[in-house]
Write a structure and sequence with these properties.
With about 500 residues, the chain is of the alpha+beta class. It contains 25 helices and eight strands. A hairpin with a 2-residue loop joins strand 5 and strand 6.
Length: about 500
């Protein structure tokens, strides 16, 4: 068997550590940027914030004294130490240090009174524990109740099997119990607020809420009967079967429906400091103002403090440069300091590039969607994909995607995630390209105005859109309807 050597040329793209750092910073929203900068300040003493002095400066100067015996654990040859270039730090004037002021001086009023909102909340679990304290339970029952409360999901349901709860109590807390005891405590917890807590499924959740008001009239009593005997038929809106099975009139069934639609299918969803509450607070990354017909863009810099390279560390290098005798220990210290200074400069530069990238991207989007930003009318949104913005900014599509998916802009019409402005195109009869978002808005308006007794099928919706000049297929209408979370015609039907 003969061995042959061959040469093969491959083109590989490898990101530098600085590029990776920039990509990560691009994904950080303004609300979390302050924390990210704080982490970097803690990790790198050569990086400073604002005009604050650095307490370790004097300690670090001691590293240059010949009497200090501490050694740096660095690998490298004597030549490596001799060839280290510190001129960029020694020769820079104070005005040329790698400082970068992150505040927008053009629009300081945008930052002046803008405070991150905080909301103090009692969590869902804490609320349940507080109500447990109102029950007269012995120590074993208290542990069982706490296990049950801890098993409730974010919607307030107890979807775990009773046997699984019994096993958890036995293996984790060495508590022996039985189904009857667990069911008894579940019944007590189901009396907690909000109503519907502790149900195993939607049917039981709704019944728990109705049964608290069972004495409030015939409609409530009938609603309980409907949910117990005809739950599947009700969810599928097979109203004729319900009327026939229970001998109800249209008026009676309307009363039942009115009672049921007032109930909360997820009683635990909006209790306490859940993620759904946190999402109500959006810190915009950009602001767009309409100044007498001129759109003005600025970056929210409230959470990005001024950063600079430590003067103390630079002074250490200057002192080293002035010295005539440079022993190995001093050279090792210089290598360490140079690494920290480089890291600080890279981070400051990455923050600067982050801001430039964000502004360039948002400016391209603003110019592309200026009609919408003047009117707020969704039909004025132009078809726009990531490639369109990438070509305008000369940035990579993946970079545009990172910005669009994690950033928000505040306009006079509301605050939008950047990806809101992106949509595919659809042709009209006249050959004009329109945004699919415009088509979705028209579709929503048609469905909102339909008769709920005879809602439009997807076929009829397709015909109506085609009459308005949109070249669209039935399957596309069905896809848009699903994306808008609008159910099929049968489930939109009311009596």
């Amino acid at each position: 068997m003969a061995l042959h050597q061959t040469f093969q040329q491959k083109q590989l793209q490898k990101l530098s550590p600085q590029q990776i750092q920039l990509m990560k910073l691009l994904q950080v929203p303004t609300a979390q940027l302050e924390e990210r900068i704080k982490e970097e300040l803690e990790e790198n003493p050569a990086l400073e914030q604002g005009d604050d002095s650095y307490d370790e400066e004097l300690d670090m100067k001691d590293e240059f004294s010949e009497s200090n015996e501490e050694d740096f654990e660095l690998d490298g040859s004597e030549e490596e130490y001799d060839n280290i270039d510190i001129s960029e730090y020694v020769q820079e004037s104070d005005d040329e240090v790698g400082d970068y002021k992150l505040r927008d001086d053009n629009y300081p009023e945008l930052d002046d009174h803008r405070v991150i909102p905080h909301k103090v909340e009692v969590s869902f679990n804490e609320m349940m524990i507080q109500q447990l304290g109102l029950l007269k339970l012995d120590p074993i029952e208290q542990k069982i109740a706490e296990q049950i409360v801890g098993s409730l999901d974010d919607d307030g349901y107890l979807r775990r099997e009773i046997n699984s709860i019994i096993d958890d109590l036995a293996f984790r807390q060495n508590i022996e119990t039985n189904q009857n005891q667990v069911v008894k405590i579940i019944k007590l917890i189901q009396q907690f607020e909000p109503a519907g807590i502790g149900a195993k499924n939607l049917q039981e959740c709704l019944l728990l809420q109705l049964e608290r008001n069972i004495d409030q009239g015939e409609d409530v009593a009938l609603a309980v009967t409907v949910l117990k005997k005809y739950f599947d038929e009700f969810t599928k809106k097979h109203y004729e079967k319900i009327e026939k099975g229970l001998n109800l009139s249209d008026e009676q069934l309307r009363g039942v429906i009115n009672q049921i639609i007032k109930l909360n299918p997820k009683p635990g969803e909006n209790v306490g400091d859940s993620s759904s509450v946190a999402e109500n607070y959006v810190i915009p990354d950009f602001f767009i103002l309409n100044n007498n017909g001129l759109l003005e863009l600025s970056l929210n810099s409230k959470n990005a403090p001024d950063l600079r390279i430590s003067e103390g560390y630079r002074d250490m290098l200057k002192e080293y440069e002035k010295g005539t005798k440079k022993n190995k220990h001093q050279k090792e210290a210089v290598v360490f300091i140079k690494q920290k200074l480089d890291s600080a400069k890279w981070f400051i530069d990455a923050i600067k590039q982050r801001q430039e990238t964000l502004l360039n991207t948002m400016e391209a989007i603003m110019n592309y969607q200026k009609d919408f930003l003047f009117t707020g009318d969704e039909t004025d949104l132009r078809p726009m994909i990531l490639k369109d913005v990438a070509e305008k900014t000369m940035l990579d599509i993946s970079t545009i995607s990172r910005v669009a998916n994690s950033k928000f802009v505040q306009t006079e019409f509301g605050t939008y995630r950047l990806k809101y402005f992106f949509s595919e195109s659809l042709q009209t009869d006249s050959g004009e390209e329109v945004s699919t978002r415009e088509v979705k808005k028209i579709l929503t308006e048609i469905i909102n105005e339909e008769s709920k007794k005879i809602p439009y099928s997807d076929e009829i919706l397709t015909e109506m859109l085609q009459k308005k000049g949109y070249n669209i297929a039935r399957r596309t209408v069905a896809k848009y309807r699903e994306q808008l979370n609008i159910p099929v015609a049968r489930l939109r039907k009311n009596l």
